[in-house]
Amino acid sequence: MPSLRNTLLYSGAALSVAAGVWFALQSSSGIGGETDDTIPVPLVIDSKDKALLHEPPTSEPKPLVTAVAAEEQAAHEREIQSLSEMAKSAPQRLMAPSPMSDMAVSPNIRPDVVYVEEQVDIGNIQSTETNPLKKTSEEAVSTFSIDVDTASYSMVRRMLNQGRLPQVDTVRIEEMLNYFDYQYPKPESTAVPFEPTIVVQPSPWAKGKQLVHIGIKGYDIESATQPDSNLVLLLDVSGSMSQPDKLPLVKQSMELLLSTLKPTDTISIVVYAGAAGEVLPPTKVADKQKILSALTQLQAGGSTAGGQGIELAYALAEQNFNKEAVNRIIIATDGDFNVGISDPKALKSLVERKRESGVYLSVLGFGRGNYNDHLMQELAQNGNGVAAYIDSLSEAQKVLVHQATSNLFTIAKDVKIQVEFNPATVSEYRLIGYETRALKREDFNNDKVDAGDVGAGHSVTAIYEITPVGSEAQLIDESRYQQGRRLPSDLSDEYGFLKIRYKLPNENTSRLIEKPIKPSLVAQGILQQEVNFAIAVAAFGERLRSTKYINDYSFDAIIDLAQAHKGSDDYGYRSEFVQLVRKAKLAKL
């Protein structure tokens, strides 16, 4: 179901009858009309006596939902069936996914009602300024952390599907770029987790400028050699999660994740609302029905003790820590932390300390209106994990099935990129995106400074726009007092020099990869296709952010570039991108 909204519509006299029955059920059951076999989540409210109480029922009636065309409901049902078949046929590790028909569908999603999404802003988004153009002779070195998060792309898509242009700060170009998988060359052995691929080609939107395209592709882990996983699912069941695109979608998403795991993997479930509690002790995936039963019982209610939930999840993960396995907490929430440890600095500090124990944290965001994107990004970054935004069952399929290996198994951590541009050949440059991932120059060689991680099979893309010396496209005048500086003649064929630092997962000392950036590094064949599609995505991000650097490069030009370089597009993600650009042409602010 692409769209959800919290208003039910019945017609004529049936409305009053149905409403009366519904409220009667709510009053008699105490759980808003749930069936008797659905029980509230037990929550720990006193750590000393470990008393367990049920979450008190809400006194507020559930809002009604506006109906839309019946064909949209049919389309939703077809999507569910299609995703079920995809999950069955996707490459599995040791067990096949269960059909969607077996999934625990929350009573909040009525089978006889069609939902339509209300136009509500996503929530708390960090404000950022677009990276400026820099004069090479004044600041030749650019340093940043890699980023494999994808939340921005999903949020942009959600707003464009509502017919609206996204908030500028929602558009993080690096996350849009890295939403897609690219067929960059892979390393020949696992001794080095990735090799950089550099391509230089003219900018399609600025005559006289060049684009320096940097791509890395991590090696993949074969299913036979994948380690076990010790996962703690930290699920938000507070009152703010009651909407159909929150907890009900969380349940379905977690079942998709379950379909990718091995029988020897371990799942624990911790929930949090007014307090935090353990719903499922560590359980092998072989006992799938026990896990599904725990998921089925979840329902929303209460305030959001997210900080308490994280503490309990870490305690459980550390209690069952397996040094031979992947130990990770996956938090699913709308990020509305309003009780417990709610101070962002305190939460970040907690996550930073706990990652040193070998337990990492990833974040799956849900919902609109009160979604705290900024906090979720920071928790994932400090927890050596990824941040994704789940706006549909299709996105859950992508993140938790198609990219399960990438998002679970880290092959390199604290990955930093530093580029030094050559003032003799490059007059000025700018980094497209990565505004929230900027590092100081000295941070590059400081192994105490945290940076992003790369998972198995992950691809990471970064693009610089440069102005070669002598180009008429130069925007910044030469300094009166720095003209005539000479550099060694043997460096005149380099635009710059790329350095990448990274640590292997079980090491604390970084390793270094170096490679010169030369004008002769051009793409051919399938690499040209991948580079051009990435450039189309970057251009789209620039247009949505209304940057002054994109000139008059139009949505139509972006469509043409992307359409010509979609490639095989097995899952249709690139075709969807083209459709989003078309929607942006018609969207309103």
Describe this structure in words.
By secondary structure, the chain is of the alpha/beta class. It is built from 14 helices and 20 strands. It is 29% helix and 22% strand. The longest helix is centred in the last third of the chain and has 21 residues, at 525-545. It has a 6-stranded mixed β-sheet, with helices on both faces. Strands 4-16-18-7-6 form a 5-stranded antiparallel β-sheet. Strands 5, 15, 17, 19 and 20 form a 5-stranded antiparallel β-sheet that branches.
Short précis:
With 589 residues, this protein is α/β, with parallel strands linked by helices. Helices cover 29% and strands 22% of the residues. Strands 10-9-8-11-12-14 form a six-stranded mixed sheet, with helices on both faces. A five-stranded antiparallel sheet has the order 4-16-18-7-6. Strands 5, 15, 17, 19 and 20 form a five-stranded antiparallel sheet that branches.
Overall helicity: 25-40%
Distance between the termini: 24 Å
Biggest sheet record:
6 strands, mixed
Low-pLDDT residue intervals, each spanning 5 or more residues:
1-73, 86-116
Write the layout of secondary structure elements.
Layout: H1 13-29, E1 42-46, E2 51-54, H2 70-89, E3 123-124, E4 134-135, E5 141-145, H3 151-161, H4 173-177, E6 194-202, E7 210-218, E8 229-236, H5 247-258, E9 266-272, E10 276-284, H6 288-296, H7 306-319, E11 326-333, H8 344-355, E12 360-365, E13 371-372, H9 373-382, E14 387-389, H10 393-402, H11 404-408, E15 410-421, E16 426-432, E17 452-455, E18 459-468, E19 496-503, E20 511-517, H12 525-545, H13 555-564, H14 573-586
Helix pairs in contact: 2-10, 5-6, 5-10, 8-9, 12-13, 13-14
